[in-house]
Specification:
mainly alpha; Tetracycline Repressor, domain 2; 2 domains; about 70% helix; globular; disordered N terminus; HTH-type_TetR-like_transc_reg; MftR_C
Length: about 200
């Protein structure tokens, strides 16, 4: 049985669910006991899978978080694509960010803050995050191009995608390291407003 056009097959959806389960288990362990103290065996056991299955999805421990890093951006892009095209881009991005994070790991604020700190300070994971950034930009470009009425291969659209993702990343990293954290959605709003994207 084939999948509907544009929709993943049942097999692929199961693969995505398995990857996310591994990632969420790894995220919780890294947050609770630290990256160095967490072994691949810990992650596999926590996810209820064998080591062989873990390595089928992840080449190494540092690869386990990639789905967590990218899934929220994927939801953000989907939410942004649904927003009215005449809505100011800054408002649309903020509404999409709020919708994309509300039901995910940011609901557990302290665990999420620890996770963001791990992503920013563990070199192996930070490298994966930077590499994933290009793929996430590629997801965002068509949506921004459609809103701006510009070709997808224009330099300006790619710059806008890069700037937006960097602004969100900086806001979340700032939030993760604050002694008395502000509301992450408010920090993100300020970061996006600072770009003045509605004037572009």
């Amino acid at each position: 049985m084939t999948a509907a056009r544009g929709r993943p097959s049942l097999t692929e959806r199961r693969r995505q669910e398995n990857r996310l389960e591994i990632a969420e288990t790894a995220a919780a362990l890294f947050s609770d006991q630290g990256y160095e103290a967490t072994t691949v065996e810990d992650i596999a056991s926590g996810a209820g899978i064998s080591l062989r299955t873990f390595y089928r999805y992840c080449a190494a421990k540092e690869d386990a978080l990639t789905p967590v890093m990218t899934s929220s951006v994927g939801v953000l892009v989907e939410e942004l694509a649904r927003r009215p095209v005449d809505e100011p881009l800054s408002s649309a991005v903020q509404a999409s960010f709020t919708s994309s994070t509300a039901a995910r790991q940011l609901a557990d604020r302290e665990q999420a803050r620890r996770l963001v700190r791990v992503m920013g300070t563990v070199p192996a994971i930070r490298m994966r995050w930077l590499a994933a950034g290009r793929e996430m930009q590629d997801q965002l470009v068509p949506v921004l191009a459609a809103r701006k009425g510009a070709p997808e291969d224009s330099m300006e659209v790619r710059l806008l995608a890069c700037a937006l993702l960097d602004a969100i990343s900086v806001a979340m990293e700032h939030w993760a390291w604050q002694d008395e954290p502000e509301d992450v959605a408010e920090l993100t709003r300020r970061a996006v407003d600072y770009l003045r994207i509605d004037e572009l």
